[in-house]
């Protein structure tokens, strides 16, 4: 394409992260969970650093067109530290103390069916089976 004077589009050029509870899943016939990191092998990682793929793309483009823009130096990386967690709370406690609407259905509704764009939904149900606990 470059030899013919065409242009190229890169998706995804730069990685990123979905913070909070905005990660989800894809469902096109098969449920596939999606993690919060979505760089998908992008040429520039979530921290803005060029990856080996970036340098390969740059080299391929430079063989056909002048590449005059300098690549900025990467941001400094901070050393990791330890954080001592001294408190904890069960998520179930938040559901018990926070007033939330309830809905009873014959199936497990999707966020779309509930009219929710993002957040947390608590699903509870009964599974038919034995009367004794499973061990």
UniProtKB/TrEMBL annotation:
<dbReference type="GO" id="GO:0005975">
    <property type="term" value="P:carbohydrate metabolic process"/>
</dbReference>
<dbReference type="GO" id="GO:0004553">
    <property type="term" value="F:hydrolase activity, hydrolyzing O-glycosyl compounds"/>
</dbReference>
<feature type="domain" description="Glycoside hydrolase 35 catalytic">
    <location>
        <begin position="1"/>
        <end position="62"/>
    </location>
</feature>
<dbReference type="InterPro" id="IPR017853">
    <property type="entry name" value="GH"/>
</dbReference>
<comment type="similarity">
    <text>Belongs to the glycosyl hydrolase 35 family.</text>
</comment>
<dbReference type="InterPro" id="IPR031330">
    <property type="entry name" value="Gly_Hdrlase_35_cat"/>
</dbReference>
<protein>
    <submittedName>
        <fullName>Glyco_hydro_35</fullName>
    </submittedName>
</protein>
<dbReference type="Pfam" id="PF01301">
    <property type="entry name" value="Glyco_hydro_35"/>
</dbReference>
<dbReference type="InterPro" id="IPR001944">
    <property type="entry name" value="Glycoside_Hdrlase_35"/>
</dbReference>
């Amino acid at each position: 394409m470059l030899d013919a004077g065409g242009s190229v589009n890169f998706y995804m050029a730069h990685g990123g992260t979905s913070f909070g509870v905005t990660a989800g899943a894809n469902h096109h016939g098969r449920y596939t969970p999606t993690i919060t990191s979505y760089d998908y092998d992008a040429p520039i990682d979530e921290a803005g650093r060029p990856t080996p793929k970036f340098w390969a793309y740059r080299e391929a483009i430079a063989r056909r067109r002048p590449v005059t823009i300098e690549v900025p130096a990467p941001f400094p990386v901070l050393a990791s530290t330890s954080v001592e967690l001294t408190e904890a709370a069960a998520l179930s406690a938040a559901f018990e103390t926070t007033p939330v609407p309830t809905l009873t259905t014959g199936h497990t509704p999707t966020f779309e069916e509930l009219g929710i764009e993002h957040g947390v939904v608590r699903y509870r149900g009964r599974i038919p089976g034995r009367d004794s606990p499973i061990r």
